[in-house]
Design goal:
By secondary structure, the protein is of the alpha/beta class. The protein contains eleven helices and 15 strands. A hairpin with a 5-residue loop joins strand 2 and strand 3. It catalyses: uridine(1498) in 16S rRNA + S-adenosyl-L-methionine = N(3)-methyluridine(1498) in 16S rRNA + S-adenosyl-L-homocysteine + H(+).
Length: 381
């Protein structure tokens, strides 16, 4: 380590530790430049120092900045997220009356000062009182909202709810926010993709959940498999429901076109889930596919994902599926017996592959969802 700089004001002396543990006195000028003073006891070490110190701006963030960058209760992120829409839960809905007058009551969402959405509006957007932003209610309607900053640093969002004719409503009820729709009251597109994912490494899992929320997935099943490390199933990323919800909420806020969070299901036993719980999240006309990299022996038995979506699992009927369930295995892939179990007549999965390359879980997951989404968009519009 060449030097460690301690905070100092202009025209003051500070001590830095240079190479070979030599202490050197440095004086900062008003311009922020630093020069070695007469107190140096090692001139050669002083000549080796070639650095500039900003007296008021150090590279190391202060404790206050780090505190403000805690985006959620878990605090596992240290950077600000770039959000495209501020989604809030109904739990933050607050009704205020001016001077106790019930007729002048106003409904608004109030977020704490250290909430990651308040941090985004304050530090990234830089909006002041009365300015508008894109907002919405989680699992509800999308709308524009007016920003209002409170004395304690919290942020209030005053929704601008439109009626069917596109005119702002003065007296709206919170029930008007429960229906998933656009600001002009047009229903949101149905979510047609579900993902059954063998649990990957915890850090990878959080990234995948964020991406899947951005891409618009309806259900996410975190399942076990033979090649899944048993420690992954007991990790905080899998067991902590609040942490999972925080990642999904951040992803939906980044997408800006939807308010619905994916529903997460946990399946510690694959066979039990396929037999007991899979029918509960299935819908009529659903296509079930299991992704696995093909080899020379099994490549002939794999189907084309594009043909399955355009024509359906029954190619002779040519009926496109209404919904698709993608089963994506662990880093090492599914075991042959797991593929045989899912592709049995009872469960009805179809094996597919996207090219001859062996992809990692994160790459395969995003690629399959993107391809499926594009094909379903072409089929259903």
């Amino acid at each position: 380590m060449n030097a460690i700089a301690f905070g100092c004001s202009s025209q003051t002396w500070c001590t830095v530790r240079a190479r070979h543990e030599t202490r050197i006195r440095v004086r900062t000028c008003a311009s922020g430049n630093a020069r070695v003073g007469e107190g140096s006891n090692d001139r050669k070490a002083a000549q080796d120092l070639s650095f500039r110190i900003r007296a008021s701006r150090l590279d190391t963030p202060s404790k206050e900045i780090l505190r403000r960058r805690r985006l959620r209760d878990g605090g596992h992120r240290n950077e600000l997220l770039m959000l495209n829409r501020i989604l809030v839960e109904l739990d933050f809905l607050d009704v205020r009356c001016n001077g106790g007058d019930v007729a002048s009551r106003q409904s608004m969402f109030t977020l704490p000062r250290d909430d990651f959405r308040s941090e985004h509006v304050r530090q990234v957007l830089g909006l002041g009182d009365g300015e508008l932003l894109r907002a919405g209610c989680v699992d509800g309607s999308l709308f524009d909202a007016q920003v209002q900053w409170n004395a304690n640093g919290s942020m209030s969002l005053i929704p601008i709810v439109l009626d069917a004719a596109g005119r702002p409503q003065k007296n709206w009820n919170h029930r008007d926010l429960l229906t998933p729709c656009t600001p002009t009251r047009v229903p949101l597109r149905p979510l047609r993709i579900d993902v059954m994912l063998a649990v990957p490494r915890p850090k990878v899992l959080l990234r995948i959940l964020n991406h899947l929320a951005v891409m618009g997935v309806g259900n996410i099943v975190l399942c076990n498999a033979y090649k899944v490390e048993k420690s992954y199933l007991n990790s905080k990323s899998v067991r902590d429901a609040e942490l999972l919800r925080a990642e999904l909420l951040a992803g939906v806020c980044q997408s800006a076109v939807d308010s619905r969070l994916p529903k997460v299901h946990f399946a510690p036993r694959l066979r039990a889930f396929l037999e007991d719980d899979l029918p509960s999240i299935s819908t009529p006309g659903q296509l079930r596919v299991v992704a696995h990299p093909p080899d020379e022996r099994t490549s002939a038995s794999f189907s084309s994902l594009s043909k399955l979506i355009i024509h359906g699992s029954d190619l002779s009927a040519s009926v496109p599926p209404e919904r698709v369930l993608l089963a994506i295995g662990p880093e090492g892939g599914w075991m042959p017996r797991e593929i045989s179990m899912m592709c049995s007549e009872q469960h009805g999965f179809v094996p597919v592959a996207i090219g001859e390359r062996v992809l990692r879980t994160e790459q395969a997951c995003l690629s399959l969802v993107a391809i499926t989404q594009e094909l379903l968009q072409c089929v259903h519009g």
